[in-house]
Amino acid sequence: MTQHAITVLGHDRPGIIAQATAVLADLGLNIEDTSMTLLRGHFAMTLICAGGATEGRISDALAPLAEDGSLTVTVREVSGEHAAGAGGAPHVLTVHGGDRPGIVSGVVAVVAGVGGNVTDLTTRLSGDLYVLLAEVDLPAGVDVEALRTALTEEAARLGVGVTLRAAEADEL
Amino acid sequence: MSQTPEGAAHQVDARVAGWSETELGVEGRVLDVVRAPAAVLSTDGERVDPTAPETVQLAADLVATMRVSPGCVGLAAPQVGVGVKVFCVDVSEHPKTRDHHGTFVLCNAEVVTSSRNEKAREGCMSVPDLTGDVKRPSRIVVRGQLPGTGEEVEVTANAFEARALQHEIDHCDGFLFLDKVAGAHAIYQRKTYL
To answer: Do A90 and B94 touch (CB under 8 A)?
Structure first.
């Protein structure tokens, strides 16, 4: 049993997911994790599937999807090992402000500087308003207040606002 | 038993707040908690006779199982593999709790009225590896029956107790929080456990 990472990117139209996943099902592949969204009208899908088919066979089977040139499909075998969960404390990072280059890199550099791991990140541009939302795992022992101060300083440099809060789930 | 801020005294039902599992007169047993995708968790539970001995025993078992489970503020019968409408809650120790009714068990409960939606991230013992953002009313009135006597009671709940009651009633109706998450990107892999 091997795992493959597959990406499908390009011009959106109805039926892309249906077509791609039908191919994978026909190959007996099990879709484990999927993320799909539209970015400014462009289709973007990433998935991890597991099964017995080889990279070449998957690529060949998906080739018709890319035939008209509107989509790019990549297939790559990946290690089956899960990235270590590390037991970090989940936090939600929010940034919003006037659009300019360098907001994402500036803010996530501060997070990376303390060993924080971004596990999910979305940005949206709406007019001049730029919004970044990220799920961040902070390693045990991080001084969250100091990180918040560093983020606030970086945000001030970028001319945006930032918040960092714990994403604690209520147990029910 | 109940902490009631001034001005909200009418919100706590004295009968429910005064209830405790000792009324049941039977010893609760600690049961195993069932995990998704067990079919019982996705099946609408049967209504019960709250005075039947098996309901009384189940009520005691649910409370006993909740008590030994760290951080557990509620447990529904389907979570111990029994597809019926019985659950217990006790949110008295939770920081988000405002008014509360201590420990109680309800049979055949349903939400009568609700208002004020709020979104919060929920975790569930039956779905241990995922959490999800769920929008739920934060003020509700729940009607149900007490096990043993079968008395019908109405519980007016707010804040975290309201959320817990809805989560448990959903279990009794065959729904998990996964059925109610706020959107396609509203479930998360859990990284920390209690």
So the answer is: no
